[in-house]
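Help needed: design a sequence for this.
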């Protein structure tokens, strides 16, 4: 055992009758890959993308996959996160068994086990009368409104409860027929089961509400029905919250009590513990602003209540097998779950088992994947996620002929281009004028809460080293010098820089006063460490983390900072990822003043004039020591024209092609390298 990397992690374990090869499992995560079902409008079926995605991770050595939320009853047509969508597959329909069976076969081909998660959203379910049509009434335990939308449900009647229980049983029967190994009933994340369990949501005074035992009745009925449907050969369990963190909700002790009572039935084979309701979604899927493993202590507190069932735990932001090993070794959980670690790195388990943790591509908790839950999950640091059939681990056939490739710019696009070109066998030289890799991302990594970006840059550094990419830093790429290298192909990934003049999509003209000496771009703050003084105005047009990060950093250093933005919210483009909640919390904590619906009219002598974009009312702020313009970006692509007649094959990628985000940069770098 001593010679094995992570000896506790790679011990097999039994969940009920199901033998699992190691202690790593993928927690359920909605992928948005299901396709509309032509036979049942408004509902969906698993797709080829699902098969490729799950198969890649099964091949990558994971022990257990809990397949994303599926629909157990027609009254829960919507997605896990409450938005109306046709991208969650319907488990309740018997005719869908062959579609689900294809997923099970693909996973089993590689020795992993597969459970299906059944999620009734209750007041988050958002069913429609027809696709894209008016909403149907929402059901819940009571008429307590949902938190994330103006959705007011009505209490399910006894007949409706019976029908839903039947739906779960039928779904479980279908999963068994499709070859699945287990069923997870979603009892956390404010799903319908939790709406019954929790006194915060459940205000009933009939047999399903009132005492803790009565609130558990719905869960017991589901458990008996599902167990009855699948018998002893499949594992059956619940996903459970460990603390609702809601006034009047289930405390950690209450959650332990729920776990104990379910465990004592002897009908559950596993309990899958994590943290978070829809009220605390930014903790449930913790972004980079939250320390790693936020649920560890919550899970450890509930675990002693469980004596029979196997304890699965999702500590949150787990992307290092050493952490997983410790959690099992310390007995905090029997299996360690993660979603995003496996979205980013399909070979997490295999690389850990091989003792190569440094080769695991580390999830940076940016939550871009979460934004794809409706349209198709993708990963900013792994362009192959969701495209496994074409770009998967096994797709790197040697390129013929082998070419000499020069990549200019070691930002995210250039790094990925160099990596993929080298993986395909090309001879690759990567040039950057800076003394380090990362481009704009290395600057972003200096922002508070974004330090983790550096982990992925270090990963690229190691990978490029292993692949023999010739890295030339501190080197200005000049057209003649590049041409003299006689490359067969050049990838131009020289990125973009923020506009000095403050031009934005809102007013496509320079902001008067932009050229005053106390007006800076983000690069001047982050790269050149410009002196900002104690009264700073930050204009945010980008709506992501740049302005907020700079504001927080300067405010932490003692400056009084205002963020001015024409958007209704600071950092609006972090809303889909849930990151904005942490960003705003941190800004308020540092006393940053937020001025939404405002824009900069003019920068005067140590003063600025703002205006409200709706009322035109003006506000003057004096004694200003610095203005930071986070406006549009201008691409840096001069080399493309200079090389046009000198090199046969040129690929312009990422911000150098048109300024966008890290996501597009990595994708285009990858794509270009596949075309060479
Ligand atoms: C894109 C995405 C979709 C998710 N969908 C589900 C889901 O369908 N069911 C569920 O129980 N949890 C879902 N989750 C939550 C994860 O299972 C997990 O609890 C959470 O991401 C924290 O784990 P991590 O830090 O390892 O990602 C989802 C998470 C992500 C990122
Ligand atoms: S998109 Fe971001 S959070 Fe999601 S898996 Fe990739 S790196 Fe992690």
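Sure. Designed sequence:
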């Amino acid at each position: 055992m001593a010679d094995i990397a992570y000896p506790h992690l790679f011990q097999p374990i039994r969940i009920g009758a199901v033998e699992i090869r190691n202690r790593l499992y993928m927690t359920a995560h909605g992928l948005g890959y299901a396709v509309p079902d032509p036979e049942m409008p408004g509902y969906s079926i698993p797709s080829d993308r699902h098969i490729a995605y799950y198969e890649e991770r099964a091949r990558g050595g994971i022990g257990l996959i809990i397949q994303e939320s599926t629909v157990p009853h027609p009254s829960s047509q919507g997605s896990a996160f409450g938005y109306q969508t046709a991208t969650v597959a319907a488990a309740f329909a018997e005719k869908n068994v062959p579609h689900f069976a294809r997923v099970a076969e693909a996973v089993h081909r590689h020795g992993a086990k597969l459970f299906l998660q059944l999620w009734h959203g209750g007041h988050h379910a958002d069913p429609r009368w027809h696709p894209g049509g008016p909403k149907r009434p929402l059901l819940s335990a009571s008429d307590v409104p949902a938190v994330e939308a103006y959705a007011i449900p009505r209490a399910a009647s006894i007949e409706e409860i019976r029908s839903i229980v039947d739906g779960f049983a039928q779904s479980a029967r279908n999963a068994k027929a499709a070859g699945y190994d287990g069923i997870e009933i979603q009892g956390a994340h404010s799903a319908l089961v939790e709406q019954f369990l929790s006194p915060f949501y459940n205000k009933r005074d009939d047999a399903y509400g009132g005492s803790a035992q009565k609130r558990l009745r719905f869960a017991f009925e589901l458990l008996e029905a599902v167990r009855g449907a699948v018998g002893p050969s499949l594992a059956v369990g619940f996903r459970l919250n460990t603390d609702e963190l809601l006034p009047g909700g289930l405390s950690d002790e209450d959650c332990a009590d729920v776990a104990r009572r379910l465990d004592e039935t002897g009908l559950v084979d596993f309990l899958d513990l994590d943290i978070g309701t829809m009220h605390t979604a930014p903790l449930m899927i913790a972004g980079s602003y939250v320390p790693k493993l936020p649920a560890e202590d919550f899970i450890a507190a509930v675990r002693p209540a469980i004596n029979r069932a196997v304890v699965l735990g999702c500590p949150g932001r787990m992307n290092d097998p050493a952490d997983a090993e410790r959690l099992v070794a310390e007995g905090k959980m029997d299996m360690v779950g993660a979603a995003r670690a496996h979205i980013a790195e399909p070979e997490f388990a295999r690389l850990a088992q091989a003792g190569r943790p440094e080769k695991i591509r580390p999830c940076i908790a940016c939550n871009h994947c979460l934004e794809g839950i409706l349209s198709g999950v993708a990963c900013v640091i792994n362009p192959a996620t969701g495209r496994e059939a074409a770009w998967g681990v096994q797709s790197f056939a040697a390129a013929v002929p082998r070419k000499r490739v020069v990549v200019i710019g070691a930002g995210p696009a250039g790094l990925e281009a160099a990596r993929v070109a080298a993986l395909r066998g090309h001879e690759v030289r990567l040039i950057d004028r800076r003394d380090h890799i990362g481009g704009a991302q290395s600057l972003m990594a200096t922002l508070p809460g974004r330090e983790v970006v550096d982990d992925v840059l270090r990963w690229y550094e190691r990978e490029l080293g292993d692949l023999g990419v010739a890295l030339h830093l501190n080197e200005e790429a000049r057209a003649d010098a590049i041409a003299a290298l006689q490359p067969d192909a050049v990838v131009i990934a020289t990125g973009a820089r923020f506009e000095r003049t403050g031009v934005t999509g809102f007013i496509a003209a320079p902001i008067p006063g932009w050229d005053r000496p106390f007006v800076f771009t983000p690069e001047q703050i982050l790269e050149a460490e410009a002196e900002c003084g104690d009264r700073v105005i930050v204009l945010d047009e980008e709506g992501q983390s740049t302005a907020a990060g700079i504001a927080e950093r300067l405010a932490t250093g003692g400056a009084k900072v205002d963020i001015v933005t024409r958007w209704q919210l600071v950092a609006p483009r972090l809303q889909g990822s849930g990151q904005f909640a942490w960003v705003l919390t941190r800004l308020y904590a540092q006393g940053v003043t937020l001025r939404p619906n405002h824009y900069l009219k003019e920068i005067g002598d140590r003063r600025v004039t703002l205006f409200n974009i709706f009322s035109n009312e003006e506000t003057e702020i004096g004694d200003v020591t610095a203005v930071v313009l986070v406006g549009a970006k201008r691409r840096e692509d001069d080399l493309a024209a200079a090389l046009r007649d000198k090199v046969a094959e040129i690929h312009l990628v990422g911000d150098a092609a048109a300024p966008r985000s890290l996501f597009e940069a990595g994708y285009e770098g990858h794509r270009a390298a596949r075309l060479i």
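The radius of gyration is 27 Å.
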